[in-house]
Amino acid sequence: MNAFAFPAIRGVQAGRAYYVVMVPLGAVGSLLRFNDGAVPDELRAQRRLNKSRIPALVRYITSNPKEYVLSALTATIDGGFHFEPSDMNGPLRSIGTLSVDMTATILVNDGQHRRAAIIEVLRERPHFAHETVAVTLFPDHGLERSRQMFVDLNQHGVKPSRSIRLLYDARDERAKLSRAVVDWVPLFRDMTDFGRSNLTASSPKLFAFSNLHAAVSTFVSETGEVDEARVIEFWAAVAESIPDWGFAHRGQMTPAALRREKVHAHGVALEAIAIAGARLLNDPRLDWRTAINRLGDVDWARSNSALWEGRALLVGRINRSRASVMLTAEKIWSLTTNGADAPGQVG
C-alpha cells in the first residue's frame, strides 16, 4: 500500500482510538484538507476561512523562527490506516508508527487558520518544511462525525482573557511597561486582576490588567515616552492622587462600591487620565505633578451627571467608546489645569 508514515501515539477517548502524529510542515498543505475542491460540499463541516487572520500568523512564525509555537491541529481521517506499536506487549505499546493510505481523506476540524498560515510561511521560507506540527487524528468513516466534532471543539474551547495574554506576552514592549507599572506601584500590584478583562461586580480587585495596559499604552502613544522609570513615575503619581483608590487599597472601602459609585474605578477614566496626563507632560507651561495632584479634588461621583453625562456616562451607564474617552479626557484636562488653554486638541 502506498502510504504516509508518521511517528505516533495512540490514545482512547469515548471508547474510540485516536492518534497524535508529527507532520512535517511541508506536508501539511497536501495532506490536510480544508474546504478545497477535493472535498465535496456536504463534507465541508468547518466555518469559512477568515483570510484576514492569516498575515498576522505568518508574521508571528517568520519573525520568531527560534521561538514560535504552534498548537496541535485536529483532523478526522476517512480511509485506510494502520498503527504499528513499537512494543506489542510492553510499556511502549501506545507509541509507534501510523501508516496512512495516500488515498485517505484527512479533514481539518480545528486549526484551519494555522494550516493556511503554514502554507504561506513555506512560500516565503521553504526551509521550514522539515519542522513539524502535531496533528490529532480521529478515525471517522465517511466523515460522518466531522461536523459535530467541529461544533464540540469550538463550543467548549475557552480563549484566555486579554489580561492573561498580556501578562504572559514577552514580546510586547508596551505590555512589559504595563507589567513594570504594576510591579513598582504597590496599589496597582495589589489591586489588579490578571485573570479577567471584565471584573465582576463583587471582585475584590479594582483594575483589570487589560484596562490598565490600555491606559499605559495610550500614555506611551500620546507622549512618545518609552523610558520605564518615567512611565512608572507618572502612574505612581496618579495612584497617589486619588484618595478613593487608597481607601480601597487599605480595605477602608470596597472596590465594588467604587465601581458602583465612582467614574474613576472604570477603564474609561484610566484611559482618559492617560490622555490628559500625556498632554500635561507635553506642555512646558505646566507643572504636570501639580496638575495630577488635582485629580483628588475632582468630583468623580457617577451621580454628578452634570459633569459626566455625555462623557464617561451615557444615560447613567459607563460608556467606554473612543468618543467618551476623548470627551472625558477633555474634562479632566480642564479640571486639573483650572481651565488653562490647551496647546491643541486632545488625541
Could you characterize the architecture of this molecule?
This is DNA sulfur modification protein DndB. With 347 residues, this protein is of the alpha+beta class. The chain has helices at residues 25-31, 54-63, 112-124, 146-156, 162-168, 173-184, 186-191, 209-223, 228-241, 243-249, 255-261, 267-282, 288-293, 305-308, 322-336; strands spanning 3-13, 16-24, 73-78, 81-85, 95-101, 105-110, 132-139, 192-193, 207-208, 313-314, 317-318. It has 2 domains: 3-156, no CATH class; 162-336, no CATH class. It contains 15 helices and 11 strands. The strands form 3 sheets. Strands 4-5-1-2-7-3-6 form a 7-stranded mixed sheet. Residues 36-47 and 342-347 have low confidence and may be disordered.
Radius of gyration based on Cα positions: 27 Å
Instruction: Give helix % range.
Output: 40-55%
Instruction: Going across the biggest sheet, name each strand in turn.
Output: 4-5-1-2-7-3-6
Instruction: Compute the number of helices.
Output: 15
Largest sheet: 7 strands, mixed
Number of domains: 2
Low-confidence stretches: 36-47, 342-347
How far do the termini sit from each other? 67 Å
* H and E string: EEHHEEEEHEHHHHEEHHHHHHHEEH
Would you tell me the overall average pLDDT? 87
Tell me the total number of β-strands.
11
Could you say which overall geometry the principal axes of the C-alpha atoms support? elongated
Strand portion:
15-25%
Structural class: alpha+beta
InterPro entries: DGQHR-contain_dom, DNA_S_mod_DndB
Protein name: DNA sulfur modification protein DndB
Organism: Mesorhizobium humile
